[in-house]
Amino acid sequence: MAFAKLKAHLRKAKAQTIDALWKAVGSICDLYDPKECWNYLNAAGYVAN
After folding, report:
1. What angle do helix axes 18-29 and 2-13 make, rounded to 10 degrees?
2. Model pTM greater than 0.70?
3. Mean of the pLDDT values across residues 2-13?
4. Are 21 and 15 in contact (CB under 8 A)?
């Protein structure tokens, strides 16, 4: 799910160079809320109960 969100934002960014791609990834990372990231990890089984 996290990668689907990342890919959707990358498509919107339409980066044409490697540098632009990395800048886009950096700004996209700011769109992920820490709680959202925890939920992704928990759903994937990486969070111990």
Report:
1. 130
2. no
3. 92
4. yes
